[in-house]
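Retro notes (design track)

What went well: tokenization of the new backbones is finally stable.
What didn't: we kept losing track of which sequence belonged to which structure.
Fix going forward: every design gets posted as structure first, then sequence, in one message. First example under the new rule, 345 residues:
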């Protein structure tokens, strides 16, 4: 007799929706202006604004001991409060960062202890500037699969500690700022909510365009090792700009095609803030009105993994992202990586 005949039939999987239950963010109090940079390197406000759109950025006060964990904790607590939840309600904490507190333990574990999340799972995710969007896709599918109900997703980075604020690093140091943003993703019976389409990509051949060397062996082939550059972000600005300009609109179109939608169907595009010219180019390509593609890079700079969640929190708090909206999240960064997440929120 076939033993399979008497096996119990598993119950049908109940459809699960995923909602963004709350958001929060944190920017360091210390502000670094273009005028401040003019004092320590050969640059000017006009040069920076023309090429990047950035006027100010926030940086941590390292002398006071401020670090990425402090920003992450503040953002997560704000998101939990916004969702009407406590840390004990979390099943999992994911932290997207390329500037962890240390190699071990994961910064998410430190954050978990600081907020009092008990034995909730916790781990870091490093996809550079794409980290939060990748994390949205991962957290969403974990919840929709039924294994987790409530996930705290954080994007936090403090690139200021990897910057050379001298003439040697001026092309990179003008770009980056510090910050953190967080979202609480939660299961819901409303199956209309959640991701309609997503993409995650990487091109490892482009790793050498953004990297942080620590030893002579970390420099790409053909690049002479330079100990003075160790510990600082090294970026081929022209290559990264070309990659972003070409990839950004193609990624948006790919995601729209997967969902069977047009750009005009989307209520808001929440994009990684890398360069204002790249954002304007994407807006022009799809004929988007200014109020459909959010820009805050002028105030906060490129905050890497915090970029997208900072925008998300600002948009929700101002009422520009509301229940039922179609929202596309898009990011690209070191790796090279690029990804999207199209939600019915």
């Amino acid at each position: 007799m076939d033993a399979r005949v008497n096996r119990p039939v598993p119950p049908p999987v109940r459809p699960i929706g995923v909602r963004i239950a709350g958001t929060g963010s944190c920017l360091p109090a210390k502000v670094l202006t273009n005028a401040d940079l003019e004092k320590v390197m050969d640059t000017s406000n006009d040069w920076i604004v023309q090429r990047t759109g950035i006027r100010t950025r926030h940086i941590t006060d390292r002398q006071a001991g401020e670090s990425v964990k402090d920003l992450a904790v503040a953002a997560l607590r704000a998101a939990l409060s916004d969702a009407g939840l406590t840390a004990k309600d979390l099943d999992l904490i994911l932290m997207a960062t390329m500037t962890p507190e240390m190699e071990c333990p994961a910064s998410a574990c430190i954050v978990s202890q600081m907020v009092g999340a008990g034995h909730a799972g916790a781990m870091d995710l490093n996809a550079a500037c794409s980290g939060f969007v990748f994390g949205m896709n991962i957290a969403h599918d974990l919840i929709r699969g039924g294994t987790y109900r409530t996930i705290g997703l954080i994007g936090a980075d403090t690139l200021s500690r990897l910057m050379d604020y001298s003439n040697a690093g001026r092309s990179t140091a003008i770009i980056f700022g510090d910050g953190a943003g967080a979202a609480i993703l939660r299961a819901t019976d409303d199956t209309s909510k959640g991701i309609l389409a997503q993409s995650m990509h990487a091109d490892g051949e482009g790793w050498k365009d953004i990297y942080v060397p620590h030893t002579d062996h970390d420099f790409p082939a053909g690049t002479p090792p330079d100990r003075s550059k160790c510990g600082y972000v090294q970026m081929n600005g022209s290559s990264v700009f070309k990659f972003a300009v070409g990839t950004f609109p193609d990624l948006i179109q790919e995601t729209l095609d997967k969902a069977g939608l047009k750009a005009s169907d989307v209520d808001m595009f929440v994009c990684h803030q890398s360069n204002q010219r790249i954002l304007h180019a994407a807006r022009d390509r799809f004929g988007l009105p200014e109020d459909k593609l959010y820009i805050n890079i002028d105030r906060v700079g490129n905050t890497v993994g915090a970029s997208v969640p900072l925008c998300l929190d600002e948009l929700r708090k101002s009422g520009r992202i509301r229940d039922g909206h179609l929202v596309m999240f898009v990011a690209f960064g070191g790796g090279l990586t690029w990804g999207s997440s199209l939600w019915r929120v």
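Added context from the reviewer: The mean pLDDT is 95.
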